[in-house]
Amino acid sequence: LGPWYASGLAALGRPAEAGQTAILINNAFPAQLVYFMLGACCFHYREPLSRTPAVLLTLGMVGGLLMWKTYFYRIPSPNAFTGLGVLALLIAVLRAPASGDGLLARIGTVSYSIYLIHFPVLLWAKQHLMVYSEGVATAAAYLATFVLANAMYEGVEKPGMRLGRWLARRAGA
């Protein structure tokens, strides 16, 4: 879809710049479908996937982490390759025993808010904090994402869910 988006921007008199390409093309909905499909496949085939040898999962996750800077800018869309590392992580999570870790439980609780807020926070951190270091920007982005996601969950999601339950009761659902 890259040429299609790029030609659309060019027709508007705004040739695609690197940032636009990254946000509008590589991170747009159609390009991200690979992750959705991998997650759906992981869920659908969870039983046979749960028997995947641990060494393959580890190689997939570690390989994805160690190689991302090598392949990311060298292929047209790294989403499928990155998705394999994410798939290995999802399978490993499926196999993991339940954890009593309160932080992990909280991350799961606020995961939708994390999904909603993470990208703007990452953009902000990259724009404002990279002058310090990539590590500082990344750490600040993780912390800010978690704090803001919790605020969104408590201030928007929970009241919205309460309102939804109240409206459903009123409608007799």
Q: What does this molecule look like?
A:
This protein has 173 residues and is mainly α. 80% of the residues lie in helices and 0% in strands. It has 9 helices and no strands. The protein has helices spanning 2-11, 18-26, 29-44, 46-49, 54-71, 79-95, 102-109, 111-129, 134-171. Helix 5 runs antiparallel to helix 6 and helix 8 packs antiparallel against helix 9 (134-171). The radius of gyration is 20 Å and the shape is globular. It starts with a helix and ends with a helix. 9% of the residues are buried.
Summed up, what is this model?
This protein is mainly alpha-helical and 173 residues long.
Helix coverage percent of residues?
Answer: over 70%
For the largest beta-sheet, the strand count, sense and barrel status come to:
none
Q: Which radius of gyration do the C-alpha atoms yield?
A: 20 Å
What's the overall geometry?
A: globular
Write down the secondary-structure element order: HHHHHHHHH
Q: Look at the structure and give the mean pLDDT.
A: 82
The SS-based structural class is: mainly alpha
User: Any low-confidence stretches, pLDDT <50, length ≥5?
Assistant: none
Number of helices: 9
Strand-helix topology:
Layout: H1 2-11, H2 18-26, H3 29-44, H4 46-49, H5 54-71, H6 79-95, H7 102-109, H8 111-129, H9 134-171
Key descriptive features of the protein:
mainly alpha; 9 helices; single chain; globular; 173 residues
